[in-house]
Specification:
Shape of chain A: globular
CATH architecture of one domain in chain A: Beta Barrel
Largest sheet of chain B: 5 strands, mixed
Strand order of the largest sheet of chain B: 32-36-35-34-33
Largest sheet of chain A: 5 strands, mixed
Radius of gyration of chain B: 24 Å
Number of strands of chain A: 56
Distance between the termini of chain A: 20 Å
Oligomer: heterodimer
CATH topology of one domain in chain B: Thrombin, subunit H
Structural class of chain A: mainly beta
Strand content of chain A: over 45%
Largest interface: A-B, 26 and 25 residues
CATH architecture of one domain in chain B: Beta Barrel
Radius of gyration of chain A: 24 Å
Chain lengths: 558, 554
C-alpha cells in the first residue's frame, strides 16, 4: 500500500576507495562508483554485502545475511575465490594487511593463517565493528567488550598476535577514528587520548583522519578540523546518522543507512549516489528498512525508516510525505506528547520536538547531568516533567524545563529498558529485570515487582499499565503483573497502543482490544490476515497499520 | 596591503588596492598580477560598464574616474564633483553613478547631477552611500549608511537611472545593507534572508556578503565564511584571516576575501589560505600599526594585517593566536583573575594569557542591539560596554555572554566610560552630553553636562578626566575645569601612567600627577603619534604613528 520507492536507498555497510573506484557494500548488493556513475557489480545484485576490504588481487567481501561466505572478487565482479568460512559466520569488518586477512565479528578478531582461521582476540562479547591498517599496526574498533560491554580501541603491532587496548570508553562512547594520540569518540568527539571530555550534544557517528585534517559527522553536521582555528562545517539533514565517512581529496563520502552521498567540500553540493539509480537494486525493499510507526494526533501517522521519516494525514491509507526534520533519518525509540501539545521524539542518538503534529522535527540539543545519556531508549511526560529512558540511566527534567535533564540517582547508569505513565501521572520504569514506580515530581522510587522476562511497559489511554515481550502480555494489577491468558502462546509477543485500543501480536496472529475494554477473554478480536514478521504496528481508528520492515500493511477491523 | 575594492569582470577578479590595481584568475596564477600603469594609484572603487572597467582613483594627478579597456588600459578620465570623495561606483551604457558621503551623483556625459541626497542634506540630514549596484536596464540599487530622520540605514532603488528613488528604511540602527538582489538581502547584524523577512541578530557582525543569480548567498560573518546554496549543505568555514574582510567572491574551491588584511584565497576543503597579493612588482606598503596595549607586561600590537605580541618592547613580535587576526581594537581593560578585555568596533574579545590566545566574546542581547562598541570599563567580573545604542553590562552570574542594556542611560551612544577604582563606580559619558556616575545598581546621578564625542576618560578618587577633541576636562562633583596642557595643539588623547595622567596630541606629550596642576612635557616625543602604551613601572612609553614604533623613556 505504501510507495516509498523514490526514497528508498540501500543501507551502506562499508565503503573503500580501491583502484580509482569507490566500492560500496550494501544490503542490496555491491556497487561501484567510477567515471561519475554508480553501477551495480554484476553477480551481487540483491545480495547483502556486510563488509569489504581491499585485497591485493581484488576486493574481499563478507556476503550473505550473516556475513558469510567470504569472497574475493576482481574488478569486474567475477569471484576469484572463496575463503574458508569463519568459525562463527558473523563478519562485521574485514582487513587485508600485508597480505594477511583479518575478520572482526561479535566475539573477536580472526586471522586467516593458511586455510585456517585463528582467533587472535576473543571475548563474549568482543564485538569488532571496524578494522583498519596503518603502517606497522592494526586497529580494531570494538563496540562492546568486557563485563561492562564497554567500547575499546585495540591495537596490534605484531601482525595480530597480541592486542592492547589504547582506549576504553564508557558505555556507548565508541571510538570512531584515531591518529597518533588523537582520538574521535562518539560522545567525546575529537580529543587527546586520556583527556577528560564533556559529552557532546550531537554524537559523532562517523569520523576519518586525513593529511592534517580530522573529519567527523556529528548529528547533521559534517566537520573538518584542519588544525588551529581553521575548520569547516556543513550541515544537512541527509548527513545525520551516517556511519561511514571517507575523505577523497576535495570530496567526502558520507554513507550509512541513508545510502551514499558524495559531498563537494568546496561548495557544499552533494550527489545522492543511489538517487541516480532508477528502480533495480537501489529500490529493493529488502535493502532498506521501514522501522517504526507512531500514532500522533488527529489520525496522523508517523513512520520512521532507514531512508527517511514520513507522515500520513489519512491514517496510512497510502499517501506518505517526507517530514521536514533536522535529521532525515530518525532512529526513533519512542514519542510522547507534552502537556502543551508539542510532540517529542526520542531517537537513539538525539531528541526532537514537533510543534506541528509531526510535520517538522527540530533537534533539541540536550545533555544529561551529571553524566551523558549514551543512547535514548524511551520517552514520556509525567506530571509535566520530561522523562528520558536511556542506556545510562533515567533522566528527568528539572525546574529549568525540558533542557534541564538530570539523572535520577537511584538508577545511576543502569540501562532503562522502557517506561510508561500510569493513570496517576507516575512513571512505570523497567530496568534490569525489575519494575519500578517513580514519582516524577520528587524522584521517589518504589520497587513494584520482578519484571517478566523480556517485557517492557506500555500504558493505555485509561492509564492502565501493560507489560509485553518474550514472556507474553501482562496486566499490572495493584503493582503485580498478571498474565493475559487470552493472547498467551509461544514466541515473543508485541503490543502497542493507539486510537483503536490495545494491539497485541505474535507470529501470524494479532488481537485487538477496544479502548476502555477490561480486556477479558471476550474483549479481544482477531485482526484478520496478519502478515508475518511485523516489527511495529499502530491500532488506528478502524484499522491496524503495521510494518514488517519492508512494507506497510493496513488491516481493517470492524 | 589594504584592498579597497574588487570586481569580477571578463574572467578576472580585479583588485583595487591602496597602491595599485591588480587582477587575478584562478586558472592562471597563484597570485594576482599588477596591471601596468596603475602603480601608486589608490583604487577606491570599481565597476563594470558592459565589458569595460571603470575605476575611481586617487593618484598623483588627483581624484578621477577612469574608463579602461578589457586589459585595464586607461582611457577617458572624469573628475568627480568638486569636494566629493567617491565611496562607491556604478556604470551602465556610458552613464556613471558615484556614491559619496552626500548621496548619489550621476554623470551622463555632460556633467554631474546630484540625484539622491540633495534634499536630505538641505534639511540637515545625512545621506552617506556605502554601495551602489547597477542591475541592468535602468535599475540602480544603493545602500545608505544613515538616512534622515533617525539615521537608520536604508536600501534605495531607482528604476529610472536615478531620477526617482524608492527608499526601504532598515529597522535597526547600524544594520547596514551589504547586498540585495533577487528578493534577498544581507545586512550587517541580521544576515542573509528574504527581503521581507526579519531575522534574529547574528552573534558576529557580517562584514561582506554576496547574492548570486542562482540564489546562493555567501557572507563573511566574523571569522566564518558561510555559503548557502539552494539544495546544498550549508557550508561554514572558519579562519582568523578572513575576519573583518569587506569583499567576497566565490571562486572554484572556495572564496576570495579581501579588505584591510589584503586579499586571500581560502579553500575550505583543505583549510588552505593563499595570499593573492604578489611579493614583487608592486609597492607593498606595510599596513598600519594601529593600537598598542600593555597587558601586564606583554605588549599587544593591533595592525591592519594581524595582531601581535612582544615581550621586548617591540624588538621581536609573535603572532597572537587570535580568533580574528585583525582586531580593530579601541580599548583594553583588565578584569578579574588576570583576564583582559579588548573592545573593538565590532566585537568584544577576551584573553586569559596576556594576548597569547584571544577569543571573541559573544555578546548575547535579547532586546535592542548594541550596533557598535565605543567604550569599555571593567570592574572585577563586571564588564560595561559603551555602544552606539547605549550602555550594556554583562550578567556574569547568569551567563557570561549575556549583556543587557541599562535603560537609565537611554539609547544614546555612550562615548566615554571609566571605572573609578576607589569605589568601583562607573563614570559614563553619553553623546547627548551628560556625564553620569553610576554604582552598577541604583539610579545613576548626572552631575555634569558637556559636549562628549569620541573620548578617552579616566577616573579615580571621585575625580574624572575626559579628553575629547581639543580639550581635557577635569570633573570634580559638578565642577568642570579645563585641564588641557597649555602647549597642546588639539586632538588630544589621554591614558594613565601609574598615578599620573598622560596626555598627547600629534605634536607632543605631557604628564602630571592626578592631583597636580602643572604639566611636564615629555622630551623627545615623536611627531604624529596616534597611540601609546605606558609602562609606568619601568618609565617607558611605547608609541606608534601607525607606521613605526617608538620607545620613549619617561
Amino acid at each position: 500500500m505504501d510507495d516509498f520507492t523514490p526514497y528508498r536507498r540501500p543501507e551502506v555497510k562499508g565503503a573503500i576507495l580501491h583502484r580509482d573506484a569507490l566500492w560500496l557494500a550494501t544490503l542490496g548488493g555491491l556497487f561501484r562508483w567510477r567515471d561519475d556513475r554508480l553501477e551495480p557489480v554484476p553477480g551481487f545484485a540483491g545480495r547483502p554485502v556486510r563488509a569489504l576490504a581491499a585485497a591485493p588481487d581484488g576486493v574481499l567481501l563478507a556476503t550473505g545475511e550473516r556475513g558469510a561466505p567470504l569472497l574475493v572478487c576482481d574488478e569486474s565482479g567475477a569471484i576469484l575465490r572463496r575463503l574458508p568460512d569463519l568459525p562463527a559466520p558473523e563478519a562485521k569488518s574485514l582487513l587485508v594487511q600485508d597480505g594477511v586477512v583479518f575478520a572482526g565479528g561479535k566475539t573477536g578478531i580472526w586471522r586467516l593463517d593458511g586455510e585456517d582461521w585463528t582467533a587472535v582476540r576473543s571475548g563474549r562479547p568482543y564485538e569488532v565493528i571496524g578494522l583498519a591498517g596503518e603502517p606497522g599496526r592494526i586497529l580494531a574498533f570494538v563496540k562492546k567488550q568486557g563485563p561492562g560491554r564497554d567500547p575499546a580501541l585495540a591495537v596490534s603491532v605484531d601482525g595480530g598476535d597480541r592486542w592492547r587496548h589504547v582506549y576504553e570508553g564508557s558505555y556507548a562512547d565508541l571510538a570512531r577514528a584515531v591518529a597518533g594520540d588523537l582520538i574521535v569518540t562518539q560522545w567525546g568527539g575529537p580529543h587527546r587520548l586520556g583527556d577528560a571530555v564533556v559529552p557532546r550534544k550531537e554524537p559523532v557517528t562517523a569520523a576519518a583522519v586525513g593529511a592534517g585534517t580530522v573529519a567527523l559527522i556529528g548529528g547533521s553536521k559534517l566537520e573538518l578540523l584542519h588544525g588551529g582555528r581553521c575548520h569547516m562545517e556543513m550541515k544537512h539533514p541527509a548527513f545525520a546518522e551516517a556511519e561511514i565517512l571517507l575523505l577523497l581529496g576535495d570530496h567526502a563520502l558520507v554513507a550509512g543507512v541513508q545510502g551514499a552521498l558524495l559531498v563537494d567540500l568546496s561548495t557544499g553540493l552533494f550527489r545522492d549516489l543511489f538517487g541516480d539509480l532508477s528502480g533495480g537494486a537501489a529500490a529493493d525493499p529488502s535493502s532498506a528498512k521501514v522501522k517504526k510507526l507512531f500514532a500522533l494526533d488527529g489520525g496522523r501517522l508517523l513512520v520512521t525508516a532507514s531512508f527517511g521519516t514520513f507522515l500520513s494525514e489519512d491514517g496510512g491509507s497510502g499517501v506518505w510525505r517526507p517530514v521536514h526534520a533536522d535529521w532525515s533519518v530518525l532512529d526513533a525509540a519512542g514519542v510522547a506528547r507534552a502537556p502543551d501539545g508539542v510532540w517529542w521524539l526520542a531517537a537513539q542518538r538525539g531528541l526532537f520536538q514537533s510543534p506541528d503534529n509531526g510535520a517538522s522535527w527540530k533537534h533539541v540539543k540536550v545533555t544529561g547531568r551529571p553524566h551523558g545519556f549514551a543512547e535514548l531508549t524511551g520517552i514520556a511526560f509525567a506530571g509535566g516533567r520530561l522523562a528520558l529512558a536511556t542506556k545510562a540511566g533515567l533522566f528527568l527534567s528539572g525546574s529549568g524545563g525540558p533542557k534541564d535533564l538530570r539523572a535520577l540517582p537511584a538508577f545511576g547508569r543502569q540501562l532503562i529498558d522502557g517506561l510508561a505513565v500510569d493513570g496517576e501521572a507516575r512513571l512505570i520504569v523497567a530496568s534490569e529485570r525489575v519494575l519500578y514506580r517513580v514519582d516524577p515530581l520528587d524522584g521517589t522510587v518504589e520497587r513494584l515487582a520482578d519484571l517478566p522476562p523480556g517485557t517492557e511497559p506500555l500504558a493505555t489511554a485509561d492509564g492502565r499499565i501493560w507489560l509485553a515481550g518474550k514472556a507474553g502480555l501482562f496486566r499490572l494489577d495493584g503493582g503485580t503483573p498478571v498474565l493475559v491468558e487470552a493472547v498467551a502462546g509461544p514466541g515473543e509477543l508485541h503490543a502497542s497502543v493507539g486510537d483503536g485500543g490495545l494491539l497485541a501480536w505474535r507470529g501470524d496472529r494479532a488481537w485487538l482490544a477496544a479502548p476502555g475494554a477490561t480486556p477479558g477473554a471476550g474483549d479481544w478480536r482477531d485482526v484478520p490476515d496478519w502478515p508475518l514478521g511485523v516489527k511495529s504496528a499502530v491500532p488506528a481508528a478502524g484499522s491496524v497499520i503495521a510494518t514488517d520492515r519492508q512494507a506497510i500493511h493496513r488491516r481493517p477491523v470492524a | 596591503m589594504e584592498v579597497k575594492s574588487t570586481l569580477e569582470l571578463g574572467g578576472w577578479l580585479w583588485i583595487g588596492t591602496a597602491a595599485g590595481l591588480l587582477r587575478w584568475t584562478p586558472e592562471s596564477a597563484v597570485t594576482a598580477e599588477p596591471v601596468p600603469g596603475w602603480l601608486d594609484v589608490e583604487v577606491q572603487a570599481l565597476a563594470a560598464d558592459g565589458d569595460s572597467l571603470v575605476a575611481a582613483t586617487y593618484g598623483p594627478d588627483g581624484a578621477a574616474i577612469a574608463r579602461c579597456d578589457a586589459d585595464g588600459v586607461t582611457g577617458e578620465r572624469i573628475a568627480p564633483p568638486p569636494g566629493e570623495k567617491v565611496k562607491t561606483l556604478a556604470a551602465c551604457g556610458g552613464t556613471l553613478w558615484i556614491g559619496t558621503k552626500r548621496g548619489v551623483f550621476r554623470h551622463d556625459g555632460q556633467g554631474w547631477s546630484h540625484v539622491f541626497g540633495a534634499e536630505i542634506l538641505a534639511a540637515g540630514g545625512k545621506a552617506e552611500i556605502l554601495r551602489l549596484w547597477h542591475r541592468g536596464g535602468r535599475t540602480l540599487v544603493g545602500s545608505v549608511k544613515k538616512l534622515a530622520p533617525d539615521d537608520r540605514p536604508a536600501l534605495i532603488e531607482s528604476v529610472d537611472d536615478g531620477d526617482s528613488w524608492t527608499v526601504l528604511p532598515q529597522p535597526d540602527y547600524q544594520d547596514l545593507v551589504l547586498a540585495a538582489a533577487g528578493g534577498s538581502i544581507i545586512t550587517r547584524w541580521r544576515g542573509a534572508r528574504p527581503i521581507d523577512k526579519r531575522a534574529g541578530y547574528k552573534k558576529h557582525p557580517i562584514t561582506a556578503g554576496l547574492i548570486a543569480e542562482d540564489g546562493t548567498t555567501a557572507v563573511v560573518d566574523g571569522d566564518k565564511l558561510e555559503i548557502a546554496r539552494p539544495g546544498a549543505a550549508k557550508l561554514a568555514a572558519y579562519h582568523p584571516a578572513i575576519a573583518e574582510a569587506e569583499h567576497l567572491h566565490l571562486v572554484p574551491g572556495g572564496a576570495v576575501v579581501a579588505g584591510a588584511q589584503g586579499a586571500w584565497r581560502f579553500e575550505p576543503a583543505t583549510g588552505t589560505l593563499t595570499d593573492l597579493l604578489p611579493a614583487h612588482g608592486l609597492d607593498r606598503r606595510p599596513g598600519k600599526l594601529k593600537r598598542l596595549f600593555l597587558l601586564d607586561g606583554a605588549l599587544l600590537g593591533t595592525t591592519t594585517f594581524g595582531t601581535f605580541r612582544s615581550f621586548d618592547d617591540g624588538v621581536s613580535w609573535e603572532r597572537a593566536d587570535s580568533e580574528w587576526w585583525v582586531l580593530d581594537a579601541e580599548h583594553a581593560a583588565r578584569g578579574a583573575a588576570g583576564r583582559w578585555w579588548i573592545a573593538c568596533q565590532r566585537g568584544l574579545f577576551r584573553t586569559d594569557d596576556r594576548g597569547g590566545r584571544i577569543d571573541y566574546h559573544k555578546i548575547k542581547v535579547d532586546g535592542p542591539h548594541y550596533a557598535e562598541l565605543r567604550a569599555l570599563a571593567v570592574a572585577g567580573d563586571r564588564v560595561a560596554i559603551g555602544t552606539k545604542q547605549g550602555l550594556f553590562v554583562n550578567r556574569p552570574s547568569e551567563d557570561p555572554e549575556r549583556f543587557v542594556r541599562v535603560e537609565a542611560f537611554g539609547a544614546e551612544a555612550v562615548e566615554a566610560l571609566a571605572c573609578d577604582r576607589s569605589d568601583g563606580t562607573l563614570v559614563v559619558g553619553t553623546a547627548a552630553g551628560t556625564l553620569w556616575h553610576w554604582d552598577w545598581a541604583t539610579a545613576p546621578q548626572a552631575p555634569a553636562g558637556m559636549p562628549i564625542g569620541e573620548s578617552a576618560m579616566l577616573a579615580g578618587n571621585g575625580v574624572a578626566w575626559l579628553a575629547c577633541g581639543d580639550r581635557l576636562t577635569e570633573i570634580r562633583g559638578r565642577a568642570l575645569t579645563d585641564a588641557t596642557p597649555p602647549d597642546a595643539r588639539g586632538g588630544i588623547h589621554l591614558t594613565e601612567a601609574g598615578d599620573r595622567l598622560f596626555v598627547w596630541d600629534g605634536q607632543g606629550a605631557w604628564m602630571r600627577h592626578r592631583e597636580g596642576r602643572d604639566w611636564t612635557a615629555v622630551a623627545g616625543w615623536p611627531i604624529g603619534v596616534r597611540h601609546v602604551a605606558i609602562d609606568a613601572a619601568r618609565g617607558v612609553a611605547l608609541a606608534t604613528d601607525r607606521a613605526r614604533l617608538f620607545r620613549i623613556a619617561l
